[in-house]
Amino acid sequence: MAAAKKTTTKKTTTRRRPSAKKAAPKSPIRTAAHTVIDTVEANVVDGFKAVRATVDAKDLQAALDIQRKYAETALKRTRQGAEKVSGIASKAVKEASEPLVKRVQDVRTRLETNVNEALGRAA
């Protein structure tokens, strides 16, 4: 008698994008990364739409107009995304440097006080 084949069903999971209803990422790096991903994703989706519309265009001029409009939209979206990432980075650097700036100011104040006291005693 032949042995029966054992069949197993492999459970697969599909990765889904986090819902927009969830809380925004707290890390500036994550926020910037999500901004880049969202920008690229939107450009890719619009790119495929533009390719489909170009294929269905009635003539060469219509196809060129579709591609021009896509390029303008993608460039504008990319510029806006870059500006947002730049703002996120600037804010993160400022927030990260605040404790260091405070420490440097405290050291400077103590140093000035010590120098003034030393000069006052020497005079």
Note the beta-strand portion: under 5%
Structural class by SSE content: mainly alpha
What count of helical segments does DSSP give? 2
Would you report the number of β strands? 0
Shape: rod-shaped
- Radius of gyration (Å): 29 Å
Low-confidence stretches: none
Largest sheet: none
Question: In sequence order, what are the helices and strands, one letter per element?
Answer: HH
Helical content band: over 70%
> Distance between termini?
112 Å
Average pLDDT taken over every residue: 85
Keywords:
123 residues; mainly alpha; rod-shaped
Description:
There is one protein chain. The chain is an all-alpha fold. The chain has helices at residues 28-55, 60-122.
Topology (SSEs and partners):
Elements: H1 28-55, H2 60-122
Quick summary of this structure?
The chain has 2 helices and no strands. With 123 residues, it is an all-alpha fold.
